[in-house]
Design brief:
The chain is of the alpha+beta class and 332 residues long. 28% of the residues lie in helices and 23% in strands. It has an eight-stranded mixed sheet with strand order 3-2-6-7-8-9-1-10.
Amino acid sequence: MGYQITRETAGRVFEQLKQGYDIFAPKLFAGEGCFSDTDVIRYGKIHALDEIQWERRSDYSFKESLFAINETLFYFTENETTVPAGPEKKIMIFLKSCDLHALKRLDAIYLENGPEDFYYKRLREKAVFVLMGCQETCDTGFCASMGTNRTEQYDMYLKVSGDIVLADVKSEELQTYFQSIDGQTCEVTPDYVTENTETVTLPQHLSVDSYQNPIWEEYGSRCIGCGRCNFACPTCTCFTMQDILYRDNENVGERRRVWASCQVDGYTEIAGGVDFRKTQGQRMRFKVMHKIYDFEKRFGYPMCVGCGRCDAICPEYISYANLINKLAKEEA
């Protein structure tokens, strides 16, 4: 059901939504960027529609709203373990089309790739998703090439244009917030881009032999292994485990899972000091092949959604998009 309402009315609806949901959206964190006197746009809990960054792509993805960067799995004593309670309230996440497609990838990893992940599932079942339209392409994004520039799989679409707010509400639960307000029903179609500045062609004939391509060392020689591309990516899901022992009793503590990166030193090191991927070229190969080859062989679609965050955030200006195009060109 589509609605056209005033911004003032939308503010009242938002206040009602806050009673039932913790609401997360891309917001500006002034002065908290990686460099001095720089800002960053990332996801955080919001209290008003005006806090949302509608036009600019977030530097980091929505995934930190669904699973924490640092998450306690359980507390332990000498005799027992205790799983921390999940969130009491439901959550609402504002995100763009490419990130909604990324949600499908996260679900595949955490819910379909073997046993369901208990911690992800209990939060995922409490989540609803609000689509934010894109009127202009972002600078490094290539969502049109990946077919992720538009989606119908949202609970609600919201567009703020001056004093007018347009909403397409698919969820019956969310429709209850709009049925008694002052406004008019209308047809609402989400905005989406049809082409990007960046165009990517996926290689169609990758194989095991592709692992021997010298391109991996070419691009890997520039990588410093910081892992920023993984942390910004909406589909990367790797983590490591940490046991925290309390000082007053070393037999009591907690086990946490913490985001990790396949690009950093030691990620593949196992007992005995064996490291499966020692060079940055080998790590680059693993990341890229997972995104566009291995994942698709398993699930039927690429892992990458073309959001372009990895290109934008890399301190060495390594272009994942250019690497993919170069692989495809070598096939031609």
